[in-house]
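User: Predict Amidohydrolase's structure from this.
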Amino acid sequence: MTSVTDLILLGGRVRTLDTHGTVAEAVAVTGGRVSATGPATEIARLAGPSTRVVHLAGRTVIPGLVDSHCHFENAGMDGHTVSFAGVRTLDAALDRISALAATREPGAWVQGQPWNPALQLVEGRGPDRSELDRAAGGRPVYLPEGHAATASTAALERSGIDPGGHDGRLVEGAMHTVARVVPDWTREERAAQLTAAMRALNRRGITSVVAGALRPEDVSAVLELAVDGRSTLRVAAMITPTGELNPSVPLADWETALASGPPAPVGRHYLTRGIKLQVDGGMTLGTAATREPYLTRPGYHGELFADRGRLAELVGAAHRAGWPVGTHVVGDAAIDVALDVYEATRHRGLLPDVLIHASLIQRDQIARARALGVQVAAQTPFLWRNRAAIAGHLGDARTEAAVPLRDLVDGLGLDGVAAGTDYPINALDPFQNIYAMTTRRDAAGDVVGGAQAVTRAEALRLYTTSGAAHTGEQEVKGRLTVGALADLAVLGADPLTAPDDELRATEVLMTVVGGQIVYDTGLLG
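Assistant:
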């Protein structure tokens, strides 16, 4: 019996990203897979009575994009938490807090979406405890900022922290103390948030994501969406089994949490990428663990949240239970710790361990990672708005050398490094990211480490073929070749040839996952 072609895209520039860099005029999809590419006249003949035919009118088709490190679940929180998108002043931020608080019962929690008020607001700071108290009418407020947070008086009291003399500013451990008492969403709320988040990524042409740190309850929710056929995004999860990036539980309890092994894949819509752990802080906060001391703090080398011994216990237990590991490491001293542990605990048969961020990685460490078969998930967007803050901690030379993408690609090969955003810490926009990767320009237009730029072709592969290799799916994802999963995006500009300004503003017109159209602007015939 002849299979019926479900979808045909005709008359465009189909960048297949196969090994030869083939550009076709059309692509056909059958049963969720690419069934043919080639000249428009040939592919048109494959259409049947039920085939949907999309006329591209010269638009560009690329494989669906893969964000290799993204806390994607935060993209579906509008209406549930305070969004600070576009806010530039403290008063405007407080107004948004007040507006959401007014929709909550007295005593109900008010949560914020992660943001960076020190860089975002003209005042250079976020609200303090007393300002949160007034804005939220005394309700408990928790506003995360990545590795820091701010809390109101009621939130501190509910977590057991004495608010006396406390401005509400929380860093690392204290932040987790408050986060643990924030109530969980209901099952229905979380399903709605996650499906909205998936659609938000689809609008960007993203068809797959490596979830940066999913808690067990979110893993269950994502699994349920995949089983029910409601997932529009392929999720590979980095999991925090105890809900913490740097678990403080006894080793026996850690081993118990890992004993059942990774959850089984659900078709092609869910797989487990590994366990997520954290070694150090960040560049912008001035807490990344570095070999050389900080510029403005003699003798200070940042923060290590796990020493070699403890990290070896955690990673070794994970490997024995069948889990690969991804560690948050920003500074070169933290990378040394992670590589030491990866080498000491290596285990055959698992996906490669990952250095997540690795923003200050050195060439000797890149060579060592290659020898160990370790991958790197790198994010150039950390330099987009943060150059001045980073330089204030580390100096110009080390800032210019941060996120050395050119060195990473040359040292590890394209399949050893993958691109991403660390959203919501950075913007989700993949084309702004590709622009930054290839020009090394920041939001102000200044070049930051120009020698570390990659080519357009490399940047696109870091978002497609490399992303597929990052999760061990390079045989079925990242290319538009016969038999590959029909994940693709139709763009208003060609990311390989558009002028820089057009690249940065690239519009996604349609996104397809497994042959199903999951986003459509209606602009295509």
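The first helix runs from residue 40 to 44.
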